[in-house]
Amino acid sequence: MPDRENGLRSYQVTVERQDKAHALASSHGHTLTLGARQGDSTAGFNAAETLLASLGACLITNVTALAEKMRLQVDQVRVEIEGDRRDEPPGIVQIRYRLVLDSPEPLDKLEKLHEVVFRWGTVTNTLLDGAAIQGDLLNAR
Fold first, then answer.
1. Staple 78 to which of 67, 100, 109, 135, CB 3.0 to 4.6 Å?
2. Residue range 46-129 in CATH 3.30.300.20
């Protein structure tokens, strides 16, 4: 994730089809097996579920970092996420989540933590604001 001249941090992920049902995502030495067969929930996380999981990972990452900065004790974190998909054109049109914390802290401090966690999330802000997407095609032959 080197910083670019324009001050933006760049992330790189490679996703390669392994067979007709699976794809493998890789980044900086880690891999994630994904389902790549439309309608097959047995193959692994599909693209929409991976998007929702990214939101959950973003929220948990921020809870961990920001609770420490705010000197709050949070013993356990879980995010339960649901998304509603439109068929024509396909897309996720609504996302709901529940942030479940196990903490001895007062509710007002946890609510403040939740507010800051959401506001400073890379994935939350991307989903809220949208991102410019550009694609190119290369024939590997």
1. 100
2. yes
